[in-house]
């Protein structure tokens, strides 16, 4: 098995950075965790804005321009040595270590193995191996179960919770917003590359604008280690939970300090594997073993035969869902098709709700480093025209995550990406409000949608207002 050495959500390229970053003369490369000359910890790579890892020459160009890797989003400069080690340990070897332990005689060492697959990973398998998305799902599930995995889940249900909580939070923030206590704009929090950048680099005043709804991965961790564990009469530490995801940033997300789900205190995801890691993609390459099986999609014994997705181009569609919900709740307006207007480029788009010539809601989607920097600059200058921004680290959204759709030399595989976008667009859409199972889980798992338990399980906290950004001195 290969040990993956990829990269986190892509940092900036020189051309991206020059027009937005004013280098700070006193800045030093913040490799606080490393002594001079010591090797970098073995960190898989990352991603906002560029399509391949920086080579040595490019790094020197950046250094010449007094722009350091610490300016990047989720680059390995904000990853401590300990985090780097823990990220690098989340690999296929670890997965097989647990599978092999389960084959040994000592039952005290055995674990229940659960794998949760992100919906953005399936188009990769389907495109790469010329399968329908349903066949790709069944083939992956069959392979994992033939290895000894006990349960295979779909993280779409966790995204349902995350979207529903984001919708409610936006309406609450809109109603609370005032000059004295600005609760808007609300910035999405589902992308770990962006959230890490906001917390570690930007800090206040950006973090109070992050939506507090947990990401789909975090909620999936709670569902598996809390709800599912209790249903199965298992201690959470008896479950080894693996997530299959489109990017390396989700490996870092698995280490978030508040990720352990109260009250049991165990980490929600034990290991994150990207779609392209060898042990995940191999079932499709091995044509000989064509075992297929349905997933265990909804925790209630129901088998999800059909793959479903959320609205939006490739990333669970927070903007579209929150927009429709807010239009109805705040202005009693029914929005059918959401119309996007492209601004500077295809990764920076705007959606407005207008009535009698007045703009009632103004939302934006900002994907990739350059667009995020422009959004942050506007926010810092206090000239912010948007009520809500869907922020994603990867240009093009999650299908373009650096854990998939890459050529062997680390460049974006544009032809494969186009195929994946077509496949994803053809997956039937199911709004989260239409999931009866989510409503049941609100009652059965969380004592109701507005209970303190729901707040605890589905929301998180960020670096508090008033605290300085962690060891960063970016001056824009
Ligand atoms: S945009 Fe999606 S794939 Fe890219 S870093 Fe964020 S969560 Fe990962």
Show the helix and strand layout:
Elements: E1 8-9, H1 14-18, E2 46-47, H2 56-64, H3 81-88, H4 92-102, E3 112-117, H5 122-128, H6 133-147, E4 151-154, H7 156-176, E5 186-187, H8 192-202, H9 216-231, E6 239-245, H10 249-253, E7 271-274, H11 278-285, H12 318-331, E8 341-342, E9 348-355, E10 358-367, H13 369-381, E11 388-392, H14 414-426, H15 436-446, H16 452-458
Describe, in plain words, how this protein is organized in 3D.
With 476 residues, this protein is α/β, with parallel strands linked by helices. The protein has a single domain (80-458), classed as 3-Layer(aba) Sandwich (Fe-only Hydrogenase (Larger Subunit), Chain L, domain 3), CATH 3.40.950.10. Helices cover 37% and strands 11% of the residues. It contains 16 helices and eleven strands. The strands form three sheets. Strands 5-11-10-9-8 form a five-stranded mixed β-sheet, with helices on both faces. Strand 9 (348-355) and strand 10 form a beta hairpin. The longest helix is centred in the middle third of the chain and has 21 residues, at 156-176. The model is unreliable at 1-5, 10-71 and 464-476 (pLDDT under 50). Residues 1-49, 278-303 are annotated as: Disordered.
């Amino acid at each position: 098995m290969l040990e993956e050495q990829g990269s986190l959500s892509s940092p900036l390229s020189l051309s991206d950075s020059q027009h937005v970053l004013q280098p700070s003369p006193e800045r030093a490369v913040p490799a606080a965790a490393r002594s001079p000359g010591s090797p970098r910890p073995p960190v898989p790579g990352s991603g906002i804005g560029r399509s391949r890892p920086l080579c040595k020459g490019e790094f020197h160009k950046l250094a010449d321009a007094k722009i350091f890797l610490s300016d990047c989003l989720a680059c390995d400069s904000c990853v401590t040595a300990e985090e780097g080690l823990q990220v690098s340990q989340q690999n296929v070897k670890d997965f097989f270590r647990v599978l092999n332990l389960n084959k040994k005689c000592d039952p005290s060492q055995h674990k229940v193995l659960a794998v949760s697959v992100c919906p953005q990973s399936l188009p990769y398998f389907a495109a790469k191996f010329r399968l329908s998305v349903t066949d790709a799902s069944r083939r992956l599930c069959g392979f994992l179960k033939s290895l000894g995995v006990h349960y295979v889940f779909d993280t779409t249900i966790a995204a349902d919770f995350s979207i529903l909580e984001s919708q409610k939070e936006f309406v609450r923030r809109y109603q609370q917003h005032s000059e004295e206590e600005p609760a808007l704009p609300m910035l999405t929090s589902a992308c770990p590359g962006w959230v890490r950048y906001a917390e570690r680099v930007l800090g206040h005043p950006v973090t109070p604008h992050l939506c507090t709804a947990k990401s789909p991965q975090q909620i999936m961790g709670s569902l598996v280690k809390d709800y599912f564990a209790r249903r199965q009469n298992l201690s959470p530490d008896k479950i080894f939970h693996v997530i299959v995801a489109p990017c390396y940033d989700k490996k870092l997300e698995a280490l978030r300090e508040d990720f352990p789900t109260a009250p049991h205190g165990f980490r929600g995801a034990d290991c994150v594997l990207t779609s392209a890691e060898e042990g995940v993609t191999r079932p499709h390459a091995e044509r000989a073993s064509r075992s297929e099986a349905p997933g265990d999609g909804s925790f209630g014994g129901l088998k999800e035969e059909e793959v479903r997705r959320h609205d939006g181009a490739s990333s669970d569609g927070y903007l579209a869902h929150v927009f429709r919900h807010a239009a109805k709740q705040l202005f009693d307006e029914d929005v059918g098709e959401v119309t996007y207007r492209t601004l500077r480029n295809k990764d920076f788009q705007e959606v407005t709700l207008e009535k009698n010539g007045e703009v009632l809601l103004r939302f934006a989607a900002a994907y990739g480093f350059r667009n995020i920097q422009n959004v942050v600059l506007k926010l810092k200058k206090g000239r912010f025209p948007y009520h809500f921004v869907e922020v994603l680290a990867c240009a093009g959204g999650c299908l373009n995550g650096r854990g998939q759709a890459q050529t062997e030399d680390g460049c974006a595989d544009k032809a494969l990406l186009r195929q994946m976008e077509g496949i994803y667009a053809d997956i039937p859409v199911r709004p989260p409000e239409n999931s009866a199972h989510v409503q049941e889980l609100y009652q059965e798992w969380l004592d109701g949608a507005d209970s303190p338990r729901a707040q605890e399980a589905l929301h998180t906290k960020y670096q508090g207002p008033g605290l300085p950004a962690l060891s960063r001195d970016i001056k824009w």
